[in-house]
Every structure is written in C-alpha cells, then in structure tokens.
C-alpha cells in the first residue's frame, strides 16, 4: 500500500498544476500563521505601550508630589538655618541659655506642627556636639541624645548643601525602624557649624503612592534612592530584591522594558527624579496582562487552520474549472511560438508575460511620442506639407481621439522684437524659454480648454484650442490674454498673439492658421503684448500703392552716393505714408524686408564677412521699432560711403563693381574687369581685396546670385534660362554655385517664395 501511495504522489506531482496548488497551499498556510503571530505580537506590543503610559504617568504624579514635599521641607530647613535663635545657639559662649533654647524649641514646634508630613526636627552643633530638637528638647552632648546615630552624615554633605536618605534608628528594645531624613548644612562665615535634620512621616510622605482601584493587574512599585536602595514599596505582587536588581540591569536607563524572572514574564517602567535622584519603578506581571491576548492568539491559530483546510478544499474543487481559460489561452498562443508552447504552465506564463511587456512598452512609447506627433501634425499643416483631407483625417483620429466635434480655435504666439530677444538670451536658453511659453499656456488654460502647442521655429508657437465643455461660452482671446499677461512676470519678455475665428470642422484648420497668422501681422500697428482677433482686422482694406521698387533702387543709389540726409528723407517720407495709408501688414512687412535686404546687400558690398541684421526679425517688431532700425542702418551706411567717396582706391573699386553689374550675363574674366578700371589684374585684385574685403571673383559671384534670386522671385523663367542670364552656360554649374552661396537650391527657393506670396494674398 505504501508503494502504491508513493506512485500516486509521483504521478500527481509530475503535473505543474498540482505542484502549483501545493506551493499555493503551503504559502497560504504560512501567510495565515504569519498574520496570526504578527497580530498576537502587535497586540502584545500595543498593550505594553498603552499600559506603560498610565503606569509611567502614575509614577510621575507620585514623583512630583514627593519632590514637592522634599522641596517644601528643604525650604523649612533653610528657614531654620537662618533663624536668629539658631545663630545664637551655634555661636554664644553660654549655649544652654534657657530663654534661647526655649524659644528655639518653640520655633521648631511651630514649624513641625504646621507641616503634616514632618515628624521631628534636629539641630546639631558640630563643634560642641550639642543638640536641640523637637520634641526631645536640648541635649548638651550627642551621647545623651536618644537618636544621634546620624551625625556622621557631615562627610556626605561635603559637596552638597542638602541630602535626603533613609537610615535605621534604634527603638529601645524593639527591632530597629527605618526613617527618611532630610539633612542640610548650616554655614557660618564659610565654615560648617551645624547640621539640620528633618524626619519625615513615611505614611504622609508616600500617601500618593496608591494601587489602582479599577485594574486587577498584579503589580508592585518601588522608590529607590540614588544608590538603588529601596526607600518605599507597595503592591499586590511579591517581587524580591534580586528581581529589582535584574530589572535595573535590563532597563539600562530606558523607560520601558520586559524581562523574565523565575519563569514569570514581567513588564517594567521607570522614571527618575531630577531633584532627588530617586528612581520610581513599576513592575507588572504580564501573565495577567496577556491572558486574554493569549486566548485570542490560540483562537486565531485554530481559525487559521480551519481557513487553510477550507481553502485547500476550495482550490481542489475549482481546479478543473479555473484552468479551463488557461487551456484556451494555450490554444490561442500556439500559433505565436509553437516551439515554446508545452503542457507546462510556466511556458505559457513566459509567453503571455512577454506579450504584455511588449504591449506595455508600445503603449509607453505611444504616450511619449503622441505629443510630438500631434505637434508635428500641426506644423505640417501650417507649412503646407499635408494637404490631403484623407491623410489629415486619419492622423486627426489617431492623435486627437479625446477631442470632440466642437469648434476649433487656432492661436499663433510670437515673441516680440525677436532680434533683441535673441541678443538678450543665450542660444542654449532660447529653446527652453519657448518651451516655457507653451507650458505656461497649457498650465493656465488646461482647466477649461483642450489644447495642443507646437513650435513653429524661430519666434513662433502655434496653439490649437477646443473648449472642454461645449455648453459653456468661452472666449479664446480672453483666456490667451490672461496667460500672456503672466509671461512678462515669469520670463521677463513680451509675447503677442493672433487668434482665428472659431472653425466648425477639421477641413478649415489650415484656414484658421492663416487667419491667426494674418491677425498676428497687425502687431506692426498695435504694438507689443497684444492679443489680436481676426474678426477685428478682417475688414481691413488696403489702398493701392506704387513705387516701392523704385524707392528701394533710389535709396540704394542715395546711400552709395554718400547722401545720408537724402536717404533719411526718402525713408521718413515712406514711413509717414505707411502710417497714414495703413498699409496691410503683409505688404508693409514685405516692403520693410525689401528695404532691409537692400541695406544688407549694400553692407555686404562694404564688408562681405559682416553678419548684418536679421531681416526676418522685422516681422516681430512694431512699425516704429522696425523703421528706427532700418533708418539707423541706412544712416550708418551712407556715412561710410560718404567717407569713402574721396578715396581713389574706392573709386577704382566702384568702377569695377559697376562694370560687373553691367556684364552679369557675359563671360567676364578678372583681366577684363581690371582693364576696364585701367590697372593690372594683380593690382586690381589687391585693391579690391583691401577695399571690399572680398575677391573680385567672389564678389562677382554674389552679384550674379543676387540677380538670380530677383529673377526667381519676380519672373517665370526656367532655371536654365536664368543661369544663362547670370553668366552660366551650364545649368548644373549654376545650381551648384547657387546652393553653395545661398544654402538652398534655386527650385526650392522659388517654391518657398511663391508659398509665402500665396499665403499673404489669401490672408
């Protein structure tokens, strides 16, 4: 039978499911045991802590009362020491004066009678060994005094003014009795002349040391002196002196502790008197304290065994039904990794865990990339890189699942005076500051709006908004204006915004971006830190204008002629015209950028390696700031050219530059340019490099590329035709030089300029 039982065990335990059940049963059993034991010891600890606190409080109350008795007795001893009759008793030659002794005894009687806890008082003269006491009276020698065994305490009082200790006194033929006495020195002229001894009534002194009238716990309390000698004790539980010594060794200064003595588990708590140095000790038998807790422990253990048996039966009963889903999972996962699937559950767990881990990782990656993808979605629509409605709809449903069909609003935020902002902040901090702008907007608006910000580069950030509650009437301009007011306080610079109209559908999202962009352009007239609605500027009518190109050409000629006053007059005239006619911002900015590009070309002629000023930064300025910048630049260039007019070398270089401008389409060599200026090619190269800070060939190439840019912007000639117009016979050579000079191909440049022009026309 034993052999068959072993075969049955071996057959069952080869199955992983059975092994799992066994392990689970053992674990549950251990958990229940651990919970039961933890509960028992936790209850025990709580009971000890809760019981020790009232015991400790009772000890402190008794200590405070006894300390007060001793403190009051010490004050009485001080009064005795300062009494005039005591002084006469210690210093007069005739010590036994009847009158002085009588008055002194009456004084001691008065003090003793008025204090219920004082039994008697002694005054001892160290020099003459005489004594006055109440109720004993006067004794000329300690030998004749019935209670004089304490006079040797003077040695113990050497380094302290007062001492309280227990002593043994003879009581006739009876057994010696114990007495607690307070001793105080009497000092005269810095010398020890006598000792005062005040004997206490023990029952009155320790009357507050009472046992609990409510609890039946077995306990015992002790009062020990500074040498750990018992002074007083009471209790209903006998504790020997050895047990007290063991308690003191176990506690080692701690307020609470437990120890075992003669098979009994005891709980001790103590406190020390800072005034007398006495130790107040309470010892409680834990057998009576934990009797009910032990019953609870046994009951919990028994219930745990019953729960364990019931759990094991339940697990066995539901085993077959519980593992049916597992079998189904094995069938479903068999196609995932056929080689790794086996009857063992551990393989199924590994594969399922791997699938869940992969899914969780993909979910994390999706959550991390979703904000970036949604921002890329907005930037692609803004740049025109995504025009198909089907593609837009698919990405919208993928990135903006939580968004509803409520109207959308688009706001474009722009840093005011971007050029000055770039000079003010380090390049490494600029991206962080733009990120901070988006964070401030998101933090302040997220309570009422869904929003997605996207960085458009340079000075701009686009924000798409939708109300969280479609039923509430919210104004996007008001919300954005409140947020923009916080940016100068937190980041110390200003930001303006253009806000579109509410758009009902996704198909109008690009139109909303154009509206916000167009509204932002009116910062040119309204100034910095403004929130501009498209509704407020949509009715703006632009008057017809003419002569802007002629003005830029005339301005260039005037500056290169060195006529600064004439250049300023031309610019101020146009500026006043722009203000009075209220040009549309797109046209005004285009004209300002045209003037800036002309000034840039003039500056590059003077110093090809100069960085100049950023033309694109004009879009972020108001009209006065932009015009002041251009005016100062024109004035500085005109002054430089005026200073150069009188130099012969400069005139020669200007002659060569004029010849280059007239022969951009011809195959001109350096020798041809030098012969036109009337000097040799070597000298021409040297003078040109000295005056223009560039080589003749390099300068000629820049002139040709500037002309090519103009033709690409303003004409529809093919690139091959433009190449021949600027002196290149082969289109590939022209494209290679253009890319090297402008960092962009001619075709891309033309597409970019057309897109910008179309956007301005649509707005």
Automatic annotation (TrEMBL):
The lineage of its organism: Bacteria, Bacillati, Bacillota, Bacilli, Bacillales. SMART domains: HTH_ARAC. This is Transcriptional regulator AraC family protein. Residues 654-752 form the HTH araC/xylS-type domain. Gene3D superfamilies: Homeodomain-like (1.10.10.60). Keywords: DNA-binding, Membrane, Transcription, Transcription regulation, Transmembrane, Transmembrane helix. The keyword Flavoprotein does not apply. InterPro entries: Homeodomain-like_sf, HTH_AraC, HTH_AraC-typ_CS. One of its GO terms (molecular function) is sequence-specific DNA binding. It comes from the Bacteria. The keyword Transcription applies. It comes from Paenibacillus illinoisensis. SUPFAM superfamilies: Homeodomain-like (SSF46689). The chain crosses the membrane at residues 20-41, 299-318.
């Amino acid at each position: 039978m034993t052999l068959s039982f072993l075969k049955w065990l071996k057959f069952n335990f080869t199955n992983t499911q059975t092994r799992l059940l066994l392990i689970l049963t053992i674990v549950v059993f251990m958990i229940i045991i651990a919970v039961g034991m933890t509960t028992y010891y936790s209850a025990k600890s709580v009971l000890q802590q809760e019981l020790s606190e009232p015991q400790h409080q009772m000890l402190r109350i008794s200590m405070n009362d006894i300390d007060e008795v001793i403190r009051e007795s010490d004050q009485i001893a001080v009064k005795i020491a300062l009494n005039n009759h005591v002084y006469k008793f210690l210093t007069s030659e005739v010590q036994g004066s009847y009158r002085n002794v009588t008055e002194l005894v009456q004084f001691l009687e008065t003090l003793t009678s008025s204090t219920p806890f004082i039994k008697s008082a002694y005054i001892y003269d160290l020099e003459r060994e005489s004594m006055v006491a109440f109720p004993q009276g006067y004794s000329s020698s300690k030998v004749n005094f019935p209670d004089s065994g304490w006079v040797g305490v003077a040695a113990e009082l050497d380094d302290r003014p007062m001492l309280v200790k227990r002593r043994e006194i003879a009581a006739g033929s009876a057994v010696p009795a114990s007495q607690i006495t307070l001793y105080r020195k009497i000092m005269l002229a810095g010398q020890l002349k006598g000792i005062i001894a005040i004997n206490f009534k023990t029952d009155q002194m320790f009357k507050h040391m009472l046992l609990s009238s409510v609890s039946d716990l077995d306990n015992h309390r002790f009062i020990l002196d500074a040498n750990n000698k018992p002074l007083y004790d009471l209790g209903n539980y006998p504790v020997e002196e050895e047990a007290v010594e063991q308690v003191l060794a176990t506690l080692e200064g701690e307020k609470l502790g437990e120890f075992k003595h003669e098979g009994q588990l005891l709980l001790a708590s103590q406190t020390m008197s800072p005034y007398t140095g006495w130790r107040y000790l309470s010892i409680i038998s834990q057998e009576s304290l934990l009797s009910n807790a032990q019953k609870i422990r046994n009951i919990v253990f028994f219930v745990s065994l019953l729960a364990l048996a019931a759990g094991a039966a339940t697990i066995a009963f539901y085993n077959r039904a519980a593992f049916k889903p597992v079998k189904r999972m094995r069938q479903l996962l068999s196609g995932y990794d056929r080689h790794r699937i086996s009857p063992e559950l551990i393989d199924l767990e590994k594969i399922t865990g791997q699938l869940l881990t992969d899914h969780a990782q993909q979910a994390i990656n999706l959550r991390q990339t979703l904000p970036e993808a949604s921002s890329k979605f907005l930037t692609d629509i803004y740049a025109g890189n995504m025009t198909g409605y089907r593609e837009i709809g698919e990405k919208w449903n993928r990135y903006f699942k939580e968004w509803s069909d409520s109207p959308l609003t688009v706001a474009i935020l722009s840093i005011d005076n971007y050029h000055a902002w770039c000079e003010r902040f380090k390049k490494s901090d600029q991206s962080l500051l733009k990120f901070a702008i988006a964070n401030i907007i998101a933090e302040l608006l997220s309570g009422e709006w869904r929003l997605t910000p996207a960085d458009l580069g340079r000075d701009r950030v686009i924000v798409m908004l939708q109300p969280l509650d479609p039923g509430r009437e919210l104004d996007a301009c008001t919300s954005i204006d409140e947020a923009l007011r916080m940016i100068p306080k937190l980041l110390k610079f200003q930001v303006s915004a253009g806000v579109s109209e509410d758009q009902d559908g996704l198909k109008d999202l690009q139109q909303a971006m154009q509206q916000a962009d167009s509204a932002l352009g009116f910062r040119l007239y309204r100034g910095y830190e403004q929130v501009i609605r498209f509704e407020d500027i949509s009715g703006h009518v632009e008057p017809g204008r003419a002569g802007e190109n002629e003005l830029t050409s005339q301005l260039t000629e005037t500056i290169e002629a060195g006529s600064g006053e004439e250049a300023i007059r031309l610019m101020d005239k146009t500026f006043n015209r722009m203000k009075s006619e209220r040009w549309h911002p797109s046209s005004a900015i285009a004209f300002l950028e045209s003037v800036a590009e002309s000034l840039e070309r003039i500056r590059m002629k003077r110093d090809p390696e100069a960085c100049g000023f950023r033309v694109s930064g004009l879009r972020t300025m108001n009209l006065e700031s932009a015009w002041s910048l251009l005016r100062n630049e024109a004035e500085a260039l005109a002054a430089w050219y005026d200073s150069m007019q009188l130099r012969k070398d400069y005139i020669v270089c200007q002659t060569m530059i004029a010849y280059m401008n007239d022969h951009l389409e011809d195959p001109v060599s350096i020798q041809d340019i030098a012969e036109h200026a009337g000097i040799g090619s070597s000298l021409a190269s040297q003078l040109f490099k000295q005056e223009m800070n560039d080589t003749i060939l390099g300068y000629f190439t820049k002139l040709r590329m500037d002309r090519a840019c103009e033709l690409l912007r303003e004409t529809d000639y093919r690139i091959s035709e433009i190449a021949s117009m600027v002196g290149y016979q082969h289109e590939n050579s022209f494209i290679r030089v253009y890319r090297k000079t402008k960092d962009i191909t001619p075709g891309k440049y033309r597409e970019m300029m057309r897109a910008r022009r179309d956007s301005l026309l649509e707005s």
